[in-house]
Structure formats: C-alpha cells, structure tokens
C-alpha cells in the first residue's frame, strides 16, 4: 500500500479547483501548479511579470515548507509562460530562489493561464 499525504498550507493560495496543493508519497512530493496569487486575498500580486514570477516561487516555497522540504528539494520544475519573451526574467528571478545544482526544467509557452496570470509553475520534489 502506498502512503499518500495531502499537503495543504494557508501560506499558499487555496486550491481553486478539484486538486490539492501537493501530494506526498514516500519521499516524493508532486506540486500542483502555482500561479501568482497572494494567499490572503486570492488575487494576482500585480500585472508586472517579475512580481508575478516572484510570487509563484514564494507560493511553491510555502507548499514545500508544508511538505517538510524546501525549493532545494525540487528535482523537476515546469514553467508555463503566456509570453516566451519573459523567459530571461524567469531566469533572473529563479536565480534568487535556487542555487546549483539546479532542478531539471521545462519552459512551455501557452495561450493563457487561470485568472489572467502570466506564469505558472509546478514540479516534483524528493525529500
């Protein structure tokens, strides 16, 4: 039987659908996508892309802390962007939250995200 723990924290936005913030099985954490919502207000942090990117990493960090880990534990990160021209900004912001060795990563350009967000990120972590 697989042990499965549902991860929830009030320090990250509440789920706005039929999903959990994260699910932990054994030593692996599967992080749901985080958009740049401020947890207390459930509204976008701002229209500025860099501020949105910071908020996404803050939200992922809060969920990782609730999982007894940190961003350092993320081994695979997926980033979704509505404008791939923002990719250099993602690298600048990400460098403030991650250090080497960096996780494996994909950057995917998509048409739109929930609530008009410009960025979303999800990932897999090993604790």
From TrEMBL:
InterPro entries: RidA (IPR006056), RutC-like_sf (IPR035959), YjgF/YER057c/UK114 (IPR006175). SUPFAM superfamilies: YjgF-like. It comes from the Bacteria. GO terms for cellular component: cytosol. One of its GO terms (molecular function) is deaminase activity. It holds the Pfam family Ribonuc_L-PSP. NCBIfam families: Rid family detoxifying hydrolase. Belongs to the RutC family. This is Reactive intermediate/imine deaminase. It comes from Marinibactrum halimedae.
């Amino acid at each position: 039987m697989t042990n499965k723990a549902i991860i929830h924290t009030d320090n990250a936005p509440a789920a706005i659908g039929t999903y959990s913030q994260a699910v932990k099985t054994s030593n692996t954490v599967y992080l749901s996508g985080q958009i740049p919502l401020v947890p207390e207000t459930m509204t976008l942090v701002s229209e500025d892309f860099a501020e949105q990117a910071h908020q996404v990493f803050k939200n992922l960090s809060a969920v990782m802390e609730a999982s007894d880990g940190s961003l350092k534990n993320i081994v695979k990160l997926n980033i979704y962007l509505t404008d791939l021209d923002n990719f250099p900004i993602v690298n600048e912001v990400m460098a403030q939250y991650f250090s080497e060795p960096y996780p494996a990563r994909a950057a995917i350009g998509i048409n739109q995200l929930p609530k008009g967000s410009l960025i979303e990120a999800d990932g897999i972590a090993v604790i």
